[in-house]
Amino acid sequence: MRIRWIGALCALMACVTVQAQTTLQQKVDQAAGREPLRSALVGVMVQDMKGNVLAQREAQRRMVSASNMKLVTTGTALHALGDGFRFETGIGYTGTVEDGTLHGDVYIVGGGDPTIGVVDTMAVKPDALFWRWKSLLKQAGISRIDGRIIGDGRAYEGHLENTTWGYDDTGTYYGAGTSALSFYENAIDYSVSAALEGEPVKVAQRYPDTPWMHFTNRSVTGPRGTGNSLYLYTTDLAPYSELRGTFAADRKPKMEHFANKYGALTCAYYFWQNLRSTGWDVSGGYADIDRDGYVRGSDFVPMEKAGSPRVIGTSLSPVLSRIVRRTNVESDNFYAEAIFRQMGEKACGVAVYDSCRVAAREVLEDLFAQAGIPTGMLDGIYQEDGSGLSRKNLLSPAFMTAYLRSMARSKAFDAFLTSLPQPGEGTLATVLPKLPAAQKARLRFKSGSMDGVLCYSGYVLDTEGHPTHVFSILVGGAAVKTSVLRDILGGLIETLL
Predict the structure, then answer these.
(1) For the chain, which domains are there?
(2) Digit-coded pLDDT (tens) for 407-462
(3) Residue 454: enclosing H or E segment and its boundaries?
(4) Is the whole model's pTM more than 0.90, yes or no?
(5) Complete edge-to-edge strand list for the sheet that includes strand 144-145
(6) CA–CA dist 449, 427 (Å, integer)
């Protein structure tokens, strides 16, 4: 009798489990069968941690990933580099030191640290960082510099930006591109305000100073209600930039953030300024190094070939786990690209994008092998960059959930999981706003959005904080506001709890 009772109970539990799975699948199908998702491309995969499928739709289809690609970049970097990895910036010099005077140049040797000069609580403030650099010079017996301050960004080869990024994106702060030596995330802040309709927009550069740049304002104050379409067009080929687009007459003044293509020169300029303001005698000016290896000053005239400085010490970035946390919570493209390029540099000795992709692929193969996941699942990813800004980045929901399950077996999983935001944090600030705090704590996932694209991928946790499910919901080609998609997809995620 007892055996029959236990058998009946097991059958009932199995029935409930199947019913729950069917309900989830039905909800996915119902949402995908109604507008606005019916006319869009919708991919879904929900699995438990053993890989059992709870719901799916077009799960093998590769789709534009937007910032969901940061999950791959940050996880593979934590696994390969370690959560305690730090970027290094070297201070060195050429020439000779006599009686406290350096007869030569000081070099700031970039090692990819994306946090130099940033406004971020985790980063060292510029004055404190410059104090560290000055201390290194003093320890080397240098108190006066008969030469220049040179920003050396030679460690990262290739373009600043990925060549598949949109032309308009590369002038924005989120498409600034990374360099081995950067400053303030290679961004520039401009205050903008409307004038009379048809007149130029009022523009003033705020920070940082870039006195070598030739700036032209071709923007126009547009009719009321026409919004903001300001873009800065610039390049690292020459020190020229042009502001184009319109800014509606009824819009309030604001701060716009654009791209600075001269991070190494900006860093050298600000260190030079700091030295002079704190009593150091620096006879030369500031400079950087061009693509051909020549030193160039603020007039951009190439001079002699750059030297090989004697490095006397380094400064360190925050640990990688903290940088990754900022990357995923705020969806910081600059940090993501810096991490991606560092993977290429460490694995291949070169930071061009082809090397970065090779490095990331090798880590993915290792992760999948450790987790016992067939490497054929890697057909579900095409990675173009580290941030997801390129529309050539493609992910399938099936790949993403397999990847998330493989990360759960990585030695870096705790740091990876902690880096993901909960609803109410960062880019998830307006996702599931009415969800009780206890339930928000059971969700860790990353958003990704572009025009017509919204993606959510991550983990569902139990009350002890252990992952029970992984999910990936990718939507492309949607012709509605992101807020509409956010509510629909948020409702699906809530059913997983």
Answers:
(1) 23-83+321-494 (3.40.710.10), 88-157+263-318 (3.50.80.20), 187-259 (no CATH)
(2) 999 999 999 999 999 999 999 999 999 999 999 999 999 999 999 999 999 999 99
(3) strand 453-461
(4) yes
(5) 96-98, 101-103, 144-145, 281-282
(6) 10
Nearest 5°: the CA angle 128, 264, 355 is: 115
How many angstroms separate the CA atoms of 241 and 8, rounded? Answer: 75
Q: Going by C-beta distance under 8 Å and a sequence separation of 6 or more, which residues neighbour residue 245?
A: 219, 220, 228, 229, 230, 231
Task: Write the DSSP string, 466-493.
Answer: -EEEEEEEEEES--S-HHHHHHHHHHHH
* Cβ within 8 Å of residue 164, ≥6 positions away: 384, 385, 390, 391, 392
Q: How far apart are alpha carbons 401 and 405 in whole angstroms? A: 6
Task: Please give the DSSP secondary-structure letter assigned to residue 145.
Answer: E
| List of the chain residues with pLDDT < 50 | 1-20
**Which residues on neighbouring strands pair with residue 459, listed in sequence order?**
444, 470
The alpha carbon torsion through 127, 128, 129, 135 (nearest 10 deg) reads 110
* Alpha carbon distance 335, 355 (integer Å): 18
Query: 151, 161, 162, 187: which is closest to 172 by C-alpha?
Result: 187
Question: In whole angstroms, what is the distance from residue 56 CA to residue 401 CA?
Answer: 11
How far apart (Å, rounded) are the C-alpha atoms in residues 388 and 395? Answer: 10
Token pair for 450: 């572009």
Q: H helices of 55-186, where?
A: 69-81, 126-139
How many helices and strands (H and E) does the chain possess?
11, 27
CA distances from 204 to 208, 247, 257 (A): 12, 14, 12
Q: How many CB atoms lie within 10 A of CB 444?
A: 23
18, 42, 78, 181, 222 from 447: Cα distances, Å: 29, 15, 19, 29, 33
Question: Whose structure tokens read 């956010």?
Answer: 486
In the prediction, which pLDDT does 23 show?
83
Specify the amino acid at residue 386.
Answer: G
Q: Are 201 and 218 in contact (CB under 8 A)?
A: no
Between strands 246-248 and 220-222, the pairing is: parallel
Q: Which of 353, 361, 355 is nearest to 377 (CA)?
A: 361
User: Taking a C-beta distance cutoff of 8 angstroms, is the pair 142, 321 a contact?
Assistant: no
Predicted pLDDT of residue 22: 59
**How would you label 259-280 residue by residue, b for 16+ Cβ within 10 Å and e otherwise?**
bbbbbbbbbbbbbbebbeeeee
